[in-house]
Amino acid sequence: MTGGDPAARLAMYQERVEAGLAARLPPADxxxxxxxxxxxxxxxxxxxxxxxxxxxxxxxxxxxxxxALDAAAAxxxxxHVYSLVHDDLPAMDNDDLRRxxxxxxxxxxxxxxxxxxxxxxxxxxxSLAEAPASAAACVGMIRTLGAATGTRGxxxxxxxxxxxxxxxxxxxxxxxxxxxxxxxxxxxxxxxPVALAPDTAPATRSALGRFAAALGLAFQIVDDxxxxxxxPGLLGKAVGADKARHKPTYxxxxxxxxxxxxxxxxxxxxxxxxxxxxxxxxxxAWLAAYIVGRSx
Length: 296
Fold this sequence. Notes:
This protein has helices at about 5-25, 35-45, 50-60, 65-85, 105, 110-130, 135-150, 155-165, 170-195, 200-230, 230-235, 240-245, 250-255, 255-275, 280-295, and strands at about 95-100, 100. By secondary structure, the protein is an all-alpha fold. The chain has one domain (about 5-295): Orthogonal Bundle (Farnesyl Diphosphate Synthase), CATH 1.10.600.10. The model has no long low-confidence stretch (mean pLDDT about 95).
């Protein structure tokens, strides 16, 4: 993006992924209806759609067509939603609200929520397999998203999180947990479009990788801060949950001022990483500022 209103661009990305999700999700009146209704309830329930926006912004910068980006954007959002549905379950975080509405297991039931998360996960990979791209690109995207979702990424980070409840971790330990639990999927959101643009210069790949790594960690530190001092009305969920569960968050182990300073430093690192890419990375730069400066 070299001009125009970035907020309007974000709204366009949000509309595209919403339409892409609606088209890919099974109809709610198709057997098994309750499962399909739960999938649609969870995936189409609003949200900022940050990860799809990163897919689109990166892809546009690299000259990738929207048809292929639609598949990648829908896939990464389905993985994100599946993780939220499972994280909200009583066996995990036991949350009652998500995006201002009852969580999936509260609206339906625990078993349906588990199945909805499972089905969303596999549908994400089906979306990538059917993307209008070369076989090599599709396989590359599947590999990228699989790594970000598994034990080296999101699932591994959640396991570390659950195992750390009530324990004292160092700031470095918390950062490692955050890089897996949240950062890996942010990094995948940048890497999926790169897989669709195999001729991307090594220097550009490196810059985008550094940008994604810094932004992914900053994203979760800001989440930790908002859980302490955010507005529940804006967040769409209760605050103070991490402290109540004795979770080792960044503010808990380093203090609020250090958490804010670390988020600012990571944002500066992300911004500096893509500065050499110039105006074509303007939308990514705007999204980074939006993510770190958000209040919800």
